[in-house]
């Protein structure tokens, strides 16, 4: 206990010193992800008791968001105009910056953010906020009157259009409030896709009106702490709308044919042999039967409701870790292979995946599958399929190469090193070979491609919750390592050396504390001997 108190005292002192450093250092140099270009000006802007916030019509959403944020601290007069203390403009930006890029200028005359659309304005606002006191960024009490921002010009745009963060709500259920909290963190880091893993062997988390047993039974198949629960359709609509205000697209994942034990316990007739399986933390050969036509009708009915809830252009249909032991001996599966002139049960999964992808194509959707579906040959997947490359530990860059060869867009999200459930030191089932620190992911991440093929949409990061990663344990795994992944997704330009980058990360610790984020150690050598990942 004494040792723990000493650690906390040191941490408090460290944060105090960092707060002083942040004040004395040019704040523009602390923005994360790092902007493409930053130039300081011999000028400054000072906040008065009231400010005028001018905006173009196309910037109204972001203007309102900023007005709400600053309105806590100063009186904000919001007006559609080209003149003000803060001016948001969507009409006169550099077209080369695209719709997510922005230009930010701070000088004696005021603050101006220019972009080609409201999304770029929003990201410019996120950078502007990082020039303000930590208390303002976190929504805490602060007297902003008299605060000055040093003059600066910033030109910025992202490296990738796809910058995703995934939460596994299938194995462990998180509250809607928790999900919203992480959407806020994503916005700060300019991440724009929330990949929501909603179904697993341990739980079905999305309400489907046509098949009520999916939640009546499927959401309760596991009995551990935080393993019971689901999201109503109204809760999902609310989360999707909340994300939209933060310029985040929510992409649901309904994992099939494997990782589906919870659904198959609820509707055992969808298995190969009509027998309900056991719930599992990992995966098993209990798959949706690929040979029964009723399986396809069942899943399509589910996807109809999912499609109505999520307006995203994309839907994720899993496709990973689907052992074929049951399919290999299932009469219906073997008959389907013969009828469709397929090679084997792997080819049956490609047929299964293609049918669902083609169905979603009629809905105007693109379908994402994990890289398992391109390891081998067989049925050619439709042109609306996107591949998420994940298993570099087991298959190297095979999924990446095969996806490119077959013309499929790619999301790089490998388990070296974007899986933030992997702790810094061994814990539970996570042995030494499933650990990494912020330096490792910054310097050795296989997803971080130096010269990406034009088919690469971008990068993703995941927090899987297998082996009972509870809500209160997520912060210490995600932060501060997520800063390194956000930097790789966004920063367009020469890479900072690790020491410089890590210095910027440490300057964010007071903000993490103000936001209530219980962040963990960043470097292996920083992990206390008795540190608890629980």
Question: Would you kindly provide a written description of the structure presented here, covering whatever features stand out?
Answer:
Helix 15 runs parallel beside helix 17. The two termini are 17 Å apart. The chain has 534 residues and is α/β, with parallel strands linked by helices. The protein is built from 19 helices and 17 strands. The N terminus is likely disordered. The protein folds into two domains: 133 residues, 2-Layer Sandwich (Chitobiase, domain 2), CATH 3.30.379.10; 359 residues, TIM Barrel (Alpha-Beta Barrel). Strand 10 and strand 11 form a beta hairpin. An eight-stranded parallel beta barrel has the order 8-9-12-13-14-15-16-17, surrounded by six helices. Strands 1-7-5-6-4-2-3 form a seven-stranded mixed β-sheet, with helices on one face.
């Amino acid at each position: 206990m004494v040792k723990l108190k000493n650690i906390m005292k040191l941490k408090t002192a460290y944060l105090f010193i960092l707060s002083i450093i942040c004040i004395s250092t040019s704040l523009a140099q602390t923005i994360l992800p790092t902007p493409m270009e930053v130039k300081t000006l011999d000028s400054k802007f000072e906040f008065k008791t009231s400010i005028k916030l001018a905006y173009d019509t196309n910037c109204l959403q972001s203007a309102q968001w900023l007005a709400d944020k600053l309105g806590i601290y100063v009186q904000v007069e919001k007006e559609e105009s080209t003149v003000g203390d803060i001016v948001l403009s969507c009409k006169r930006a550099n077209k080369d910056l695209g719709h997510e890029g922005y230009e930010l200028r701070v000088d004696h005359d005021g603050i101006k953010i220019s972009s080609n659309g409201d999304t770029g304005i929003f990201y410019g606002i996120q950078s502007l906020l990082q020039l303000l006191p930590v208390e303002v960024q976190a929504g805490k009490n602060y007297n902003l009157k008299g605060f000055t921002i040093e003059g600066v010009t910033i030109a910025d745009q992202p490296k990738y259009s796809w910058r995703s963060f995934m939460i596994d709500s299938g194995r462990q259920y998180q509250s809607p409030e928790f999900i919203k909290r992480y959407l806020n963190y994503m916005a700060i880091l300019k991440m724009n896709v929330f990949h929501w893993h909603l179904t697993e062997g341990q739980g079905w988390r999305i309400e489907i009106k046509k098949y009520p047993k999916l939640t009546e039974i499927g959401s309760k198949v596991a009995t551990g702490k935080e393993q019971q629960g689901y999201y109503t359709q109204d809760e999902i609509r609310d989360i999707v709308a909340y994300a939209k205000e933060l310029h985040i697209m929510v992409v649901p994942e309904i994992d099939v044919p494997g990782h589906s034990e919870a659904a198959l316990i609820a509707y055992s007739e969808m298995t190969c042999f009509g027998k309900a399986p056991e719930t599992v933390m990992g995966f098993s050969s209990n798959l949706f039967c690929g040979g029964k036509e009723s399986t396809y009708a069942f899943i399509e009915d589910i996807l109809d409701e999912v499609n109505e809830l999520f307006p995203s252009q994309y839907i994720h249909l899993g496709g990973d870790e689907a052992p074929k032991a049951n399919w290999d001996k299932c009469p219906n599966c073997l008959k389907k292979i013969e009828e469709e002139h397929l090679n084997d049960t792997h080819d049956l999964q490609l047929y299964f995946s293609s049918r669902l992808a083609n169905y979603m194509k009629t809905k105007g959707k693109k379908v994402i599958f994990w890289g398992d579906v391109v390891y081998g040959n067989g049925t050619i997947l439709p042109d609306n399929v996107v591949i998420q490359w994940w298993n570099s530990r087991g298959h190297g860059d095979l999924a990446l190469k095969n996806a490119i060869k077959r013309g499929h867009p790619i999301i790089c999200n490998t388990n070296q090193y974007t899986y933030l459930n992997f702790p810094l030191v061994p814990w539970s089932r996570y042995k030494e070979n499933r650990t990494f620190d912020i330096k490792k992911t910054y310097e050795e991440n296989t997803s971080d491609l130096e010269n990406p093929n034009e088919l690469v949409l971008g990068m993703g990061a995941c927090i899987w919750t297998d082996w009972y990663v509870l809500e209160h344990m997520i912060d210490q795994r995600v932060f501060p390592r997520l800063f390194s992944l956000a930097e790789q997704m966004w920063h367009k330009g020469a890479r900072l050396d690790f020491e410089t980058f890590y210095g910027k990360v440490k300057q964010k610790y007071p903000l993490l504390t103000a936001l209530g984020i219980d962040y963990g150690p960043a470097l292996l050598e920083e992990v206390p001997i008795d540190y608890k990942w629980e």
